Amino acid sequence: AQSVTQPDIHITVSEGASLELRCNYSYGATPYLFWYVQSPGQGLQLLLKYFSGDTLVQGIKGFEAEFKRSQSSFNLRKPSVHWSDAAEYFCAVRANQAGTALIFGKGTTLSVSS
Amino acid sequence: DADVTQTPRNRITKTGKRIMLECSQTKGHDRMYWYRQDPGLGLRLIYYSFDVKDINKGEISDGYSVSRQAQAKFSLSLESAIPNQTALYFCATSDWDSYNEQFFGPGTRLTVL
Fold this sequence. Notes:
The complex is a heterodimer of chains A (114) and B (113). Chain A has 114 residues and is mainly β. Chain A is built from no helices and 12 strands.
């Protein structure tokens, strides 16, 4: 069955430091992968997506992610974190059996310390 | 104006009551979805619809029903609410293209006492 694992439930990063959020997926073919962000009390906003091609994907707000097929990973990175990046981050893969519905990981909460 | 709207935004109800959550979209998308979010569990799919005549169960459809009244409207009903249905509910839409992304509404926070 398809699944998405985000190993880190909660991460704290100092403002200005680099960030990497981990995501591993289980999927037989080439996956369609997404990262969403949810700020407190808000809905979900798409940060970036990967379908094919270049394995390094650029997104909004200075985020990027790298698809590594050999490791079944799609980790999210940012070189310098801002206090406004504090939020919950979700990795998702498009479900194979439910059309274009998404299977989400359980999320990683990012806290930013000053 | 928001492309995907949900009403109500917050609702408190009692066990056994019937509740309807509504979703409307102005994006012109054919596909609509209902998810629920629980702390530590991420989002899970309840129902999805590819058009007005095509409705499908998701991972956790038990205790829920849906109605696709029009292309732009997709409602989620809890026929007899129970406390473990307390959650944040999201509606989402996407275009028919397989390379699509999903656009989410702001969510409805439902509390069942």
